[in-house]
Amino acid sequence: MTEREYARRRAAAREALTARRLDGLLVSSPANLRYLSGFTGSNALLVLLADRAVLFTDRRYTLQASGQTGCTVRTASGSLFDAASKWLRTNRINRLGYDPGQLSHASCLRMRSGAARLVPAAGVVEELRMVKSPGEIELIRRSAGIAARAFAGCLRLIRPGITEVELAAELDYRVRRLGAEGAAFDTIVASGRRTAFPHASPSAKVLASNEIVLIDMGALRAGYCSDMTRTVFLGAPAARFRRHYRAVLEAQLAAADAVKEGVSAGAVDRAARKVLQASGLGPAFVHATGHGLGLEIHEKPRLARGEKTLLRAGMVITIEPGVYLQKFGGIRIEDTVAVTRNGCEILTPTSKELLTI
Fold this sequence. Notes:
Radius of gyration: 23 Å
Distance between the termini: 41 Å
Oligomer: single chain
CATH class of the largest domain: Alpha Beta
Strand order of the largest sheet: 4-3-2-1-5-6
């Protein structure tokens, strides 16, 4: 991203502050800091005002911050909150927005010792982050491509005898070798009946013949996440598995077909559930159909029952229906998807057809 892009984002955030009658915004979450300033260090605060943006950090990051951001950089020798509070008092800032979900009570008390009045202003930056620029979508597309290539490179390893944790480690290793900073989240590899756990952690269980293997993985490339899930079968699957797989695939395709600008997030969820209900699998679909992603693996919007957020072109979401049955296992199929004016673009290049090994 260029400094021009970061400046554009800060200008959009300032418009949101004006609408809320705020003099400034205190930004503390790493994702929001990176979105507005470009800074990638682990310790910083950003104060965004109508006429300037000041980044507070410590001596470890002075050079890095100066090279990464066009914001004014101030180095603190102690607490960043103390330094920011003193600066706000000197500059007579009155109403300062902050996100209560991102700031601890102790940090709030430090900030309140200054002259600025803290005003809850949750979601200011997150609302902007929902709609991605073409450059952001391209970075997510590259991230999805890395994950897909890592998955393809590990297909020969999905065999009886390897453990879940060994396979997860191989996937993570290949993601890094292909140019990612790492996995976008803790890679899920589950097999057999453990696939009935939607968020199973890889275990020492050994993959065996005639069982399901579920892999949920993503890459982190230039700060941007991707997310994909594929379910394969070791051996010759029975008719029941084939029926359930086809139902989940049809639900995933129906949800993707429902995606376009102006459609509510809840409507996409309904499209997936309608298919699974008709197949008698409705009660086995126990989570939301999807979520936004970008600088974080879970962002707005959430694609779930009753969600009224209207999709906009440029949003990037996941479509991931699944079914989970005790003593049988689970099946989930997931793609990373970019919303367009008239539909969507699937950013995950991996085939969704049933893969048997």
